[in-house]
Amino acid sequence: MVNLLEPLMKKKVIVTGGTGYIGSHTAVELIACGIEVVIIDNLYNSDITVLDGIRAITGIRPRFYEYDLCDMAKLEEVFANEGKIDAIIHFAAYKAVGESVKKPLEYYRNNLGSLINLLAIMEKHGVASLVFSSSCTVYGQPEILPVTESSPVKEAASPYGYTKQAGETIIRDTMAARPEQKAISLRYFNPIGAHPTAHIGELPRGVPENLVPFITQTAIGLREELKVFGNDYDTPDGSCIRDYLHVVDLARAHVIALKRLLEGRNNSNFEIFNLGTGTGVSVLEAIASFERVTGIKLNYQIAARRPGDIEKIWADPSLANKELDWKTEITLDESMETAWRWEKKIRNQS
Ligand code: WQD
Asked: Whose CA is nearest to atom 36 of ligand 1?
């Protein structure tokens, strides 16, 4: 039988932010395809024990460097130790919208400085391929739904959002000047859920900002109640609408994007893909899904709108469906189920 994954075997890939939520799930999928994964992460927003979770699933503990990507000397050290690197998947970044408003320079320095260092070192060491972690946040509140990759990129609503827009611009300009290199930017909608084994998942620090960890922490008793931020939006049930996709589906898309680059099947040397399910789900529908699969009645209350929230957004993923032959496979209910399994696991409940 022909092994369709053959081109990926024996490749060595750096995953920055590989102990983070999406990075760790992607590391698992890469290892499952025979790729040698090297993780660089400064553990700013993740935990070293994630490496044990990756090992529990794959049998392999990736080599790990607790380095800051803004430190070029440390990056050079990784390349000196590792030798030839075939590609980089770049997740490492600060990601809290609210925090970015308070600490804009830290966001610009970290998110843009690390990307610039990576692009510089790629050229120096002949790394041809880059997959970049971008976000639907670049679209702001779109006028036309669902959003395609050619929907306008709106003025960023936060320094965080601007680092994703600027990051894409920096990559586009760099690729234009370097025909020997290629990059894919993946614009994620709302990743949720955890690995079905419950060995890895989302590990929010402090009070979660995102909906699903807040739901699971409320259900387990860590938070008293979930506040639903607004029920007077122009949506069928009045609550905001998002496109929630399972983190393992999202991780798989990175492997496919990487394979496309390594096999030279890209149409241009900078491509952008939306990654979402294509279906909008309201906050109240997300809560109903959680209640349905767990049998738990969630304690929630309608509260004021959250400043800066977008009313509704969901993806048109048809470009990724066609070009990457990728689509989401895990349902919202299954996603909630895995998120709950993970929450129980980390709180030592069965
Ligand atoms: C989802 C919905 C809230 C918490 C995310 C990322 C952000 C950016 C864009 C990443 C919204 C509602 C939430 C709560 C609630 N991209 N909510 N009560 O806002 O889409 O942002 O995607 O690159 O970084 O965080 O996701 O999970 O915060 O909110 O009612 O306690 O849930 O109002 O409608 P959001 P979210």
From this structure: 210
What would the pLDDT profile of 145-156 be if each residue is shown by its tens digit? 999 999 999 988
| Ligand 1 atom at shortest distance from the alpha carbon of 240 | 34
**Cβ-count burial of 74 within 10 angstroms (0-12 exposed, 13-18 middle, 19+ buried)?**
middle
Query: Cis omega before residue 204 (within 30°)?
Result: no
Tell me, what's the pLDDT at 3? 56
CA 5 to chain centre: 23
Active site residue 139: no
Confidence of residue 1 (pLDDT cuts 50, 70, 90): very low
How many angstroms separate the alpha carbon of residue 39 from the centre of ligand 1?
Answer: 27
What global pTM score does this model have?
A: 0.97
Residue 89 — φ and ψ, nearest 5°? -110, 120
Report CA(210)–ligand 1 centroid distance (Å): 5
Calculate ∠ Cα 120-125-129, nearest 5°.
75
Residue ranges of the alpha helices (H) in 187-327? 211-219, 247-262, 283-294, 318-323
Q: How many residues does the chain have?
A: 350
Residues in contact with ligand 1 by the CB-under-6-Å rule are 95, 97, 135, 137, 190, 209-211, 214, 226-229, 240, 242, 283, 306, 309
